[in-house]
Amino acid sequence: MRSLNVLLRAVALVALLNSAAWAAPTQESDFNGDGIVSHADYSILGDNFGSAGSANSGDANGDGFVDAADFALYRSQYGNTASTPSILPFTATATPTVGGNVEWLLQFSNVNGALAGHLNIQTSGPAVLAVTPGSMLQDDGSPPVGAPGFRETGGAMNVVEGISFAGDKAYAALGTTLTFFGPPPTSATLDFLTLTTAGQQTTSITVRSGLVAGQRLSEYGYQGQDYFFEESLTFTFVGVPEPAAASMILPLVGCAAIARRRTGRGMAAA
Questions:
Q1: 242: pLDDT confidence band, cut at 50, 70 and 90?
Q2: Which one in 12, 43, 104, 192 has a CA-CA gap of 20 to 30 Å to 21?
Q3: What is the distance of C-alpha 189 from the center of its chain?
Q4: From the CB of residue 247, how many other CB atoms can be counted at a distance below 10 Å?
Q5: Residue 207: partners with Cβ closer than 8 Å, 6 or more residues away
């Protein structure tokens, strides 16, 4: 009986190990070895795209080269969130347009290397009319333009690539382009996206922070590390005042001239 119990426990242990091995997800795209596939891994892939690579430098499929096939595998495995507070300055600059709207330029500063991230944005009321990625985040111009990220919709978080907007909300999941060969583009300031809101009244936009369904509303990956915004970032455009009504009071000299014209010849002006 004892031998039978030992045998049964051994069989159960083997079954458990086999089950665990079968259930364990493959994470070839975990280039930084932190156990998750996130924006941080994109930044490593982006920094080495177009060159020879290894498992920790963006070569997800093990063919010795970092290319579009590795990006495709990364996209299929993406799905984790950041845990380190942001280190890059982030700003939004508002400019009134000739067409009577407001254009917002959202930028990261002190960038030197590939960057990917997603932002969930909400206005103070005005509708979002357009969202355009920065020149270094255009990808190849063919949809989907961007990288995977988490978009919030009705309290749910779904992995969505690229740009979308409706009403007072906008979403962008973008990464510095992977279609170049050679070193990744670098810039002290990285234009992440341009957003246009309707009208020129006082308006605010908020880059939302916090967790929804266990995922970050806004985060980015840079130099092999994931970062999130510790609090929501709100930027305000002070509305353009309405022009004052034109005065109908005529100058006294003009009034006198009109009076003289009305008196007729040979009569003194009133």
A1: low
A2: 43
A3: 15
A4: 6
A5: 90, 92, 106, 119, 120, 121, 218, 229, 232, 233, 234
